[in-house]
């Protein structure tokens, strides 16, 4: 699977943000298939080397986003790093309260945070943690058309091309139109 041209541009912008931000920032990367997310992540790792990347997955056991600090090696806690958060939209609603109330705590650390979320998760985040959402450094779109939409688009495009290929017939002019032309 390949990134779309728009997604490639967003990947370049996201990597520039992560490479050039000295202190905390956070961004949202929107995806709709795990395959495209994995392709984008692999490219992102290559683009921001040597900055280390750590990931944190929300679950019923991992509901506190600040717990990522406990999972980092001791030296990485005070150094620049990128933290990738997965499955925030599947997390308990308490997560959104923590994000909302602990913005300054996140900002106090030298880590750039990237929240990979679905389109529905983006809406949920914006509604349930509006101040956290407003403080983001960017939203980057890695969504792709679903296969069934792509097939429909291709069949519609093929039908349109077929119509364009068929010769257009000249309109027959009736007696009345001929009389008008003569005058």
Radius of gyration: 25 Å
Number of helices: 9
What would you call the structural class?
Answer: alpha/beta
If strands are numbered along the chain, what order do they take across the biggest sheet? 2-3-4-1-5
N-C termini distance: 65 Å
As a percent range, the share of strand residues is 15-25%
Shape: globular
Spans where pLDDT lies below 50 across 5 or more residues: 148-153, 159-170
**Overall pLDDT metric:** 84
Report the strand count.
5
Give the proportion of residues in helices: 40-55%
Could you write a compact summary of the structure shown?
This protein is an alpha/beta fold. The chain has helices at residues 5-20, 34-48, 68-71, 94-101, 103-107, 119-128, 130-134, 147-165, 175-182, and strands at 25-30, 53-57, 81-86, 111-117, 138-141.
Could you walk me through the main structural features you see in this protein, from its secondary elements to its overall organization?
With 183 residues, the chain is α/β, with parallel strands linked by helices. The chain is built from nine helices and five strands. The chain has a five-stranded parallel sheet. Strand 2, helix 3 (68-71) and strand 3 (81-86) form a beta-alpha-beta unit. Helix 1 (5-20) crosses helix 2. The longest helix is centred in the C-terminal third of the chain and has 19 residues, at 147-165.
């Amino acid at each position: 699977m390949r990134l779309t041209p728009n997604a490639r541009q967003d990947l370049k912008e996201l990597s520039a943000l992560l490479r050039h931000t000295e202190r905390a920032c956070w961004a949202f990367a929107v995806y709709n298939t795990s395959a495209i997310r994995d392709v984008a992540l692999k490219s992102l790792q290559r683009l921001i080397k040597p900055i280390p990347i750590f990931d944190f997955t929300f679950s019923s056991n991992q509901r506190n986003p600040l717990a990522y600090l406990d999972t980092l090696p001791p030296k990485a806690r005070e150094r620049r790093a990128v933290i990738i958060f997965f499955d925030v939209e599947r997390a308990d609603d308490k997560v959104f309260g923590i994000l909302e109330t602990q913005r300054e705590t996140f900002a106090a650390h030298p880590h750039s945070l990237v929240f990979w979320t679905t389109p529905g998760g983006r809406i949920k985040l914006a509604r349930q943690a509006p101040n956290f959402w407003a403080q983001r450094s960017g939203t980057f779109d890695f969504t792709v058309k679903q296969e069934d939409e792509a097939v429909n688009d291709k069949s519609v495009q093929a039908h349109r091309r077929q119509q364009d290929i068929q010769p257009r017939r000249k309109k027959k002019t009736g007696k009345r139109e001929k009389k008008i032309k003569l005058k």
